[in-house]
Amino acid sequence: MPQVVIVGAGFGGIAAAIELRRHGLADVAILDKAPDLGGTWLHNTYPGAACDVPSHFYSYSFAQRRDWERLCPTQPDILHYLHEVAREQGVDRLVETGTHVTACRWDDAARRWTLSTSRGERTADAVILATGQLHQPAAPRLRGTFEGHAFHSAGWDHDYDLRGRRVAVIGTGASAVQFLPAVAEEAAHVTVFQRTGNWFLPRRNRPYPRPYRKLIERVPAVQRARRRFWFWFLECLTYVIRHPRTAGRVVGAWSAWYMRHQLRDHPELRERIWPDYTFGCKRILFSSYYLPTLARPDVELVTERIERLAPTGVVTADGRLHEVDCLIYGTGFRTTEFMFPMEVTGAGGRSLREAWRDGAHAHLGIGIPGFPSLYVLYGPNTNTSGGSIITYLEAQAGYVRQAIELERALGAALAVKPEVEAASDRAVQARFEGTAWTACNSWYRDDSGRIVTNWPGYMREYIAETRRVDPADFEPVDPR
Ligand code: NAP
Question: What is the pLDDT of residues 285-305, one digit of tens each?
Answer without folding.
Answer: 999 999 999 999 999 999 999
